[in-house]
Amino acid sequence: MTCLGAPGSSGSKSEAYSAASGNRNPPKGPISQSDRRLALRELRRSPGSDSLGGRQFRRAAVSRKLRAAVAQLGPIHLADSREAVVKRLCTLLREAHSAGVKFVVFPELALTTFFPRYWMTEQAEIDRYFERDMPSPETRALFDLAKELGIGFYLGYAELTQEKGEPRHYNTSILVDPDGRIVGRYRKIHLPGHSEHLRMFHHLLSLQAGAYQNAAWVLAAAKCGAEDGHAMIGGSAIVAPTGEIAALALTEEDELIATNLDLELGEYLRRAVFNFEKHRRVEHYGLITSRTGAKTEV
What we know:
Elements: E1 2-4, H1 33-45, E2 51-52, E3 55-56, E4 65-72, H2 82-98, E5 103-105, H3 123-127, H4 140-149, E6 152-163, E7 166-176, E8 182-187, H5 200-214, E9 217-220, E10 226-227, E11 230-231, E12 237-239, E13 245-248, E14 255-262, H6 263-272, H7 276-279, H8 286-289
Parallel strand pairs: 4-5, 5-6
Antiparallel strand pairs: 1-9, 2-3, 4-14, 6-7, 7-8, 9-12, 10-11, 12-13
Helix pairs in contact: 2-4
């Protein structure tokens, strides 16, 4: 997942669930296929506007617009090669180019199956799911195509690197500019996990809350379908800084969803609603940061 500033409405069939549809609220439970089809019909009927949920927001004199997309991936199985997966990524990148997209978000661990689910005892077996170089010979085609099309992208993968002569394993994501150059890298620190799959309601709730509280647009790219019999969550979405869903994937296979992002909306909300820079009082946070849990002061 990555966060950008932007709402907007769009017209392709995969941009299914849009808060620009007026008075329909996001469902309060798991989203069924019928709900998604209804949302698609409403989106097609909705007039184009700069509003989400019927609320108008002030725009800066010069608006910063970006057309961005989330590239959802269907199952990647143990037997699937990196070359085969990269071909799928390239297909989605070409589809994005045809839709006028300038930035694409691919999922976490996008190049392999979700290998942490398997019990492996040999380190060499584990390491084959990690990338030692990026771009690698297998992924070079994706970088070259992005440069050819002038599209930036975000890609998650497992990274194996050397630090002080010792191997280190990371869950990594990179930011690639339209010239095919890596301009940013993030290595995940907190790795939460749970034995039960999250329901779609809680999945979307976390995306919407994060977008609203940070006044930022969330582009969430997920894997979906069943990988070697294991269900993936799916539910790829684009969420506005207002917390409203601007686009939602309809399928459990490779799918591109896109929308027009107005980066000024996030800036406006950060100034008018969540102006932490202006209002935060760091001098009073010492008690919070110095202890864990609640304690009674005697």
